[in-house]
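Anyone up for a design puzzle?
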């Protein structure tokens, strides 16, 4: 979504740009499908998350071919594998190409065994030598990576995600469309159903809330992944009022129908959905990970909790019993989003990075 925004809003008169991307997984929705005729979007079907040495080598060759044809001044890569293949492909063709790489979070803990993490660190340290600018989606991500000697302070920029301004309706209208009762307190959880997002913590916390407030609440869980079936079984066994939506191209109607967003991640970069929820005056209750605190100011526009079912359930229950506080914090969350986390701000910060990088490469007399 962020790359689609950058591709759409970056002024083509100033920066002629091409977006090269892979294919989404079968259980995911690709928002780029809405622009199938854009000649400046190139899709490589082999480029996916999983490692496949033959497919990845062929992807590398295809990337070289594309980069050679475009002959860019800057190559900007995203995600781990595409970042590795894209940066090496670019530098193998033209040494003067400026390389920018963005980290949307990192994999230094919570994702892989230690041996794989060490391998990732070694690879990233090697790639430092061919990367001109690193961008992190939060200050904490940049700090974490620099601790492992990946880049230095001078090569890092922080650009938080930004959301698209969109029409709003009302909570009542959104609930009517989703057939959710107006009197329910609705909690929304958004993410991949995988260990790192910890969906079971959300369900176990909600179980405690349900014991206290039977028939007064609902949990919406948006997403898909390998833990979805076990989460569904847990909800069914415990007779929980949970709506599992699967992958959705747009989550705005679910957020607008909700009273609070719940984040239970073990590791997170910035957590863009927090800004999206804020746009609809929905505050977030989140575990204390990654760059969450760069949006959430505790008690003012959201809440930080320990990763325990009891603490999460207690915070949800306290907000149910204090609608005035919930409204006040939700209002502050919206102000935070529209002041600091819009797509326009996101794109403008990239423009500055690109301009400065080109100015340095061309020298003072260019």
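Challenge accepted. My sequence:
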């Amino acid at each position: 979504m962020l790359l689609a925004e950058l591709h759409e809003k970056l002024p083509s008169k100033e920066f002629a740009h091409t977006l090269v991307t892979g294919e989404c997984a079968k259980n995911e929705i690709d928002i780029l499908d809405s622009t199938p005729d854009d000649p400046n979007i190139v899709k490589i079907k082999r480029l996916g998350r999983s490692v496949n040495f033959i497919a990845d080598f062929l992807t590398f060759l295809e990337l070289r071919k594309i980069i050679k044809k475009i002959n860019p001044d800057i190559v900007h890569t995203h995600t781990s594998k595409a970042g590795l293949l894209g940066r090496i492909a670019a530098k193998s063709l033209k040494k003067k190409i400026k390389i920018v790489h963005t980290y949307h979070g990192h994999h230094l803990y919570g994702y892989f065994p230690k041996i794989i993490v060490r391998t990732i660190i070694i690879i990233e340290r090697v790639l430092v030598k061919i990367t001109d600018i690193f961008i992190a989606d939060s200050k904490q991500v940049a700090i974490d990576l620099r601790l492992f000697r990946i880049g230095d302070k001078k090569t890092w920029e922080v650009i938080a995600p930004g959301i698209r301004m969109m029409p709003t309706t009302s909570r009542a209208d959104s609930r009517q469309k989703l057939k959710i009762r107006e009197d329910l307190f609705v909690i929304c959880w958004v993410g991949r159903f995988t260990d790192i997002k910890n969906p079971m913590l959300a369900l176990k916390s909600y179980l405690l809330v349900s014991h206290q407030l039977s028939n007064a609440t609902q949990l919406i869980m948006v997403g898909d992944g390998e833990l979805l079936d076990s989460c569904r079984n847990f909800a069914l066994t415990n007779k929980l009022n949970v709506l599992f939506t699967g992958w959705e191209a747009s989550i705005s109607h679910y957020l607008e129908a909700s009273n609070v967003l719940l984040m239970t991640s073990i590791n997170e970069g910035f957590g863009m959905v927090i800004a999206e929820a804020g746009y609809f005056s929905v505050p977030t209750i989140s575990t204390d990970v990654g760059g969450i605190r760069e949006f959430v100011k505790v008690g003012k526009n959201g809440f930080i909790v320990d990763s325990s079912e009891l603490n999460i359930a207690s915070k949800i229950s306290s907000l149910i019993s204090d609608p005035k506080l919930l409204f006040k914090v939700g209002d502050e969350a919206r102000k935070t989003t529209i002041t600091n986390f819009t797509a326009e701000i996101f794109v403008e910060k990239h423009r500055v990075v690109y301009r400065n990088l080109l100015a340095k490469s061309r020298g003072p007399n260019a």
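A detail worth pointing out: The chain has a mean pLDDT of 90.
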